[in-house]
Design brief:
Blueprint (H helix, E strand, L loop, with lengths): L7 H6 L7 E5 L10 H11 L4 E5 L18 E5 L5 H5 L25 H12 L5 E3 L1 H5 L5 E3 L4 E3 L2 H5 L3 E3 L4 H12 L15 E5 L12 E4 L2 H4 L3 H13 L8 E6 L2 E5 L8 H8 L16 H6 L2 E3 L1 E2 L10 H4 L5 E2 L2 H12 L7 E2 L1 E3 L9 E2 L22 E2 L3 H10 L7 E2 L7 H4 L3 H10 L4
Parallel strand pairs: 1-2, 1-3, 3-4, 4-7, 9-10, 12-16, 15-19
Antiparallel strand pairs: 5-6, 7-8, 8-11, 10-11, 13-14, 17-18
């Protein structure tokens, strides 16, 4: 089986002396597109790079960090699919006792604030290697932010991690561009490398002219937002208003004598690009070095991701700030190919546990006013009422279900992802079929 290497012996078997890129993750290595490190690793591999993975390294020394040697281009660091503090603590700040992204659900295989800890370990081992942060923990902490566990406003995670770049949102475009530029011997301080959409960097005021004339939106400084709720709210509103890849401005936020520079979001992937990512050669299993099951894999093993993004704009939800408001749907052909792949697995019992995304009934929907998303600043397409320009028909989902049920070996399809009922009520055919045929007991 073809997995990304986790050990020197696996590198040797591939004939590699050195990895181009090494990804460090707080999750166990499961080669499945629902696991961020595996997906990014496969995307980089498809672009010709030699990618290794160090999963859940011991954070008490640098022994595991240096296991694969020094990468030729950079280290990529992620806490895993979930913020490490959420892994460890409940909303009541009580310690959790399991971790579904670890072998047999064992707790304690990742540190608190994993991105910061791993990045600082790399700096201890290799002083000059570029470090690129990514994943949910880095993405949602890219600006000065309120930390529930500390009950205080913390600096951008880039400062505490002492990393070079941060990739936020869905990172395929940005991390691929970073790899290409570093491969072309571009220096980390180069303006082109620090101007990639979907990334953030640290710079001094004297360096700002090198970024040219692109317009900036300056947020209240870290010092201001950490001492004033009004300034914090103002920063959030400005950042939200610029979170569109078509018209978003660069954000600047002063931290002491330096600036956090956040580039506009990366452009959304089109269906063809998304299809290509999900067609990469994932083994859809945990790395064979694990002798115990990874509980999180069991949740998604027989599921299919149909789309990304959500235009609900809920104030309590992070999806807008991570996946963005633009729905990016895979083609029906791509999803059917994945259903056929599942059906060929000897362990498949005939049930696809979920075909969905952040909001299941947004598959195939979007703005019907051509080009309007390039200048629309509405925070939600659904509130306070459904936008007149929204193409809300959920017939694409119904068509997808019908096609998937024709795949030999598929007996049932369930929708386990969330459903927006305000949207569903506008399509009774969708709602009836969802309730009668695709809702699990």
């Amino acid at each position: 089986m073809n997995y990304l290497p986790m050990t020197r012996s696996e590198m040797d078997s591939l004939g590699w002396d050195q990895c181009d890129i090494i990804l460090i993750s707080g999750d166990a290595y499961v080669d499945h597109p629902s696991f961020g490190a595996a997906l990014i690793g496969r995307v980089l591999e498809s672009q010709g790079f030699k990618v290794g993975i160090i999963a859940q390294p011991d954070w008490h020394s640098t022994v595991d960090i240096i296991r694969l040697g020094k990468p030729r281009l950079f280290f990529g660091v992620t806490s895993g699919n979930i913020d490490s503090m959420l892994h460890h603590y409940t909303a009541n700040k009580k310690l959790r006792h399991d971790d579904p992204y670890s072998p047999e659900g064992r707790h304690g295989l990742r540190p608190n604030r994993a991105v910061i800890v791993y990045s600082n370990l790399i700096r201890q081992a290799y002083k000059d290697v570029p470090i690129v942060l990514g994943g949910v923990e880095a993405s949602l902490r890219r600006l000065a932010h309120y930390d529930y566990w500390d009950d205080a406003v913390r600096r951008s995670i880039l400062f505490d991690a002492k990393a070079d770049l941060l990739v936020y949102g869905m990172g395929e475009r940005a991390v691929g561009r970073i790899a290409q530029l570093l491969n072309a011997e571009c220096r980390m301080q180069n303006a082109e490398l620090q101007s990639i959409p979907g990334t953030a960097a640290i710079c001094r005021s004297s360096e700002l002219p090198k970024f040219g004339t692109l317009e900036y939106a300056e947020l209240p400084s870290f010092e201001e937002v950490s001492s004033s709720k009004e300034a914090f709210n103002q920063a959030f509103v400005i950042a939200s208003n610029e979170a569109n890849p078509y018209f978003g401005k660069r954000l600047l936020q002063k931290h002491g004598d330096r600036y956090l520079l956040v580039n506009p979001p990366a452009m959304s992937l089109d269906s063809e690009e998304l299809d290509a990512i999900y067609a990469l050669p994932y083994q859809r299993q945990a790395h064979p070095s694990y002798k115990e099951p990874i509980p999180a894999l069991e949740t998604v093993k027989w599921s299919i991701t149909s789309h990304r993004g959500c235009y609900g704009g809920c104030s309590f939800c992070t999806l807008f700030f991570h996946q963005g408001p633009i729905i990016q749907s895979r083609s029906i052909e791509s999803i059917i190919n994945e259903a056929e792949l599942l059906a060929r697995d000897p362990k498949f019992k005939g049930v696809i546990s979920d075909i969905g995304g952040p909001t299941a009934n947004m598959y195939g929907t979007g703005c019907k006013a051509a080009g309007r998303e390039k200048f629309c600043r509405k925070p939600s397409c659904l509130a306070p009422q459904i936008c007149e320009n929204l193409k809300p028909g959920q017939h694409a989902s119904v068509k997808l279900w019908h096609q998937a049920l024709k795949v030999p070996g598929v007996k049932n399809i369930f929708v386990a992802s969330g459903v927006r009922y305000d949207l569903a009520l506008h399509d009774h055919k969708y709602l009836k079929e969802l309730i009668q045929k695709h809702t699990g007991g």
